[in-house]
Every structure is written in structure tokens, then in C-alpha cells.
Amino acid sequence: MVKYNEGDIILCEVKDVVKTTVFVETLDGMKGSIVFSEVAPGRIRNIRDYVVPKKIVACKILHIAYDHLFLSLRRVKDKEKKEALEIYKKERSLESFIKKLLGNKAGEIISKIRSENSLSLVEFFESAKQNSKLSEKYFSKSEIEKLTSILTEKKEKEKEIKKEFILSCNQPDGIIRIKKMLSPHDSITYLGSSKFMIKAKSIDLKQADSKLNKILETIEKESKKEKCEFAMKK
């Protein structure tokens, strides 16, 4: 039974690119495809600028037929993409916590939670806040206490660091070049007037700062190759 609807924004993993079609799979194993005209507007010179195997992408469902999803990348708004990827990060974080707590039996429990409730881990734990009996079905009392402690500790200790930079390009295809440089990094938002902000969250501010600096160094190097102007905003 298909649990998705036309118009939904979902996350998929790129599996392959064959001729003019990108083949993907949802995180719960459903197959889908994206024709090149739905990857990006205009002519695509190099599809790898947009999708590569194993990359997680946010897609919009255009049509569903015979348990196959027909999808679009270009119709996903920046805000929708950001929200979907944020949920994905939370989902992976919850998986990590459960594996840390349950060890070898974690995979089985995670599968049961998703299949028996038709919910993601994020949705499940949000529901469990209102109805504790949901979590009691899969975890012992002590495990629930430990999981709650881990989640609370992470929420309290995690801090965010932000940096602003300027990126402009006077080339005829300047916008495309800028998108190419920034698309691999989902933590960047456009502020207007060629200004951008990049953010990172971590319980270790030095680690977050180091991560941002590496990304910014990469963008700066790419900007020189693409004949664009890069500068940090003071």
C-alpha cells in the first residue's frame, strides 16, 4: 500500500542515472524516477552538478502509478528542502541513539516502529510525548528513561554557530555557477544582495567552527575556478 500522496515532499537516495532519467529510492525502499526536465530548469550540461549516486535529495511527488513515484527536484522550494533535510538529520540522530541504547536488537525495533505505526522515528517520538504507551510497547521503563535522558542532554548541550559570506558572479550563467557551488551544502541560506549565511550545530563549538571553515574554504576555492567573487562578511 502506497503511503505517499501527490504533492508530498519526500527524501530519496539517488541510485543511478540512465540516459535522461534519474532513478531514486525513498528511505523506506519505494522506487521512483526523475526525468532531466524535472531536475532543473533549462539545459543540463552536467547532471552530476545536481545528482550523484548515494546523494540524499528532496523531491516533490508529481504522480504515482503501479507503486512507482514520478518525482521532481526543481519544483521543491528552498524552504521545503531545508525542512525535509532537517527531519532527515533528526531521523538519523534518533537511529543513532537507539542503536547506542539497544545494541544488536536496535535494527529490529526500529523496523517494527516504522512498519507497525506507519511513522518515521521523528513522528513516532512526537506521538509518544502525548501517549507514553506507544514507547512502552518497544522499550522497557529503564530504556525509556535512558533514551529520554540522551535526547534531553543533546537538546540542552547542542549549540549553533553562524557565519555570513558574500558570493557574486558576473558571468552570464552566474546564478547557475553559484547554485553549483552551494548545492552540496544544505546548511546555507540566501540573505539577499549576494549575501549568504551558513550554520552548523554541535555540542562542540570548536568542531562546528572547524566544519564551517572547511566548507567555506571549499566554496572559496570553487569560486576562483568559476570566476566568481567570494568574501567573508565582517
Identify the notable features of this structure and list them briefly.
5-stranded mixed beta barrel; 9 strands; flat; alpha+beta; Alpha-Beta Plaits; 4-stranded antiparallel beta sheet; 3 domains; 234 residues; single chain; OB fold (Dihydrolipoamide Acetyltransferase, E2P); 42% helix
What does it look like?
It is a single chain. This protein is of the alpha+beta class. It has 3 domains: 9-76, Nucleic acid-binding proteins (OB fold (Dihydrolipoamide Acetyltransferase, E2P), Beta Barrel), CATH 2.40.50.140; 79-157; 159-232, EIF_2_alpha (Alpha-Beta Plaits). The chain is 42% helix and 27% strand. The chain is built from 7 helices and 9 strands; from the N terminus they run E-E-E-E-E-H-H-H-H-H-E-H-E-E-H-E. The strands form 2 sheets. It has a 5-stranded mixed beta barrel with strand order 1-2-3-5-4. The N and C termini lie far apart (53 Å). The mean pLDDT is 87.
Shape summary: flat
The main sheet comes to: 5 strands, mixed, barrel
C-alpha termini separation: 53 Å
Q: Helical amount among residues, as a percent range?
A: 40-55%
Question: Which assembly state applies to the chains in this document?
Answer: single chain
Order of helices and strands: EEEEEHHHHHEHEEHE
Q: What class do helices, strands and sheet pairing give?
A: alpha+beta
